[in-house]
Amino acid sequence: QDVVINNVRIIVGNGQVVEQGTILIRGGRIVSAAAGAAAASGVRAIDGRGLTAVPGYIDAHRHIVGGRNAEAWLKEEAPTRMREFLEAGYTTLMSAGGAAEPVVALKKAIDSGQMKGPRIIPSAPLQVGGNATPDSARDAIRKMAAAGIHFTGEVRVDNVNPDPKELEVIAAAADEGKKVGVEVAVHAATVVAMLAAVKAGVPKLVHSPHGQWAT
């Protein structure tokens, strides 16, 4: 849409606050956000006096699909849940885990205009325990990249005694991810787990070390 918001207080996000400014949007994208007025002929005008505009929030760790029946959730609950996120100011949700298929389906529905919602960044699960091997992990990472998925869901590492075999698998996945553009995310809730993940080459840690103090 094409619209101009006048007389609005703008919190820029870098510490700067514009007490009275103008936000100009053309083709659904912000063209400018600055103090004073902006030349905006031929667009709908909104008076933002008394209102504050802030950058859209990004939820970088959201288990998006709720319930056990993903298909039912997508049909019955997703439109309401996604509208709630928009109304709360979230413009992007990053999947933290779970099956990739329903999250990708949700993304397609929003991207195509079938549903209103924030941008969805999907993830896919990565198996590192059981029969997983470095080769199987590399193959899984390549399949994610081929599907247009650039992040794994959170991979759990034992917070007390990280399994060397699992760490070997994670290291292979992280290495392959650097080649094909997929970031491996590890659930690290202790300093021990964090250090083990970093040593394995993991680029993304989720959760703070709430299991231990970090110096």
Record the SSE blueprint.
Elements: E1 3-11, E2 17-26, E3 29-35, E4 44-47, E5 52-53, E6 57-62, H1 70-76, H2 78-87, E7 90-95, H3 100-111, E8 119-121, H4 134-146, E9 151-156, H5 164-180, E10 183-187, H6 191-199, E11 204-206
Parallel strand pairs: 1-4, 1-5, 6-7, 7-8, 9-10, 10-11
Antiparallel strand pairs: 1-2, 2-3
Helix pairs in contact: 4-5
Structural class by SSE content: alpha/beta
Strand content: 25-35%
Record field, number of beta strands: 11
| End-to-end distance | 49 Å
Keywords for this structure?
215 residues; five-stranded mixed β-sheet; three-stranded parallel β-sheet; elongated; 11 strands; alpha/beta; 32% helix
Describe this entry's structure for a reader.
- With about 220 residues, this protein is α/β, with parallel strands linked by helices.
- The protein has six helices and eleven strands.
- Strands 1, 2, 3, 4 and 5 form a five-stranded mixed beta sheet that branches. Strands 6-7-8 form a three-stranded parallel beta sheet. A three-stranded parallel beta sheet has the order 9-10-11.
- The protein is elongated.
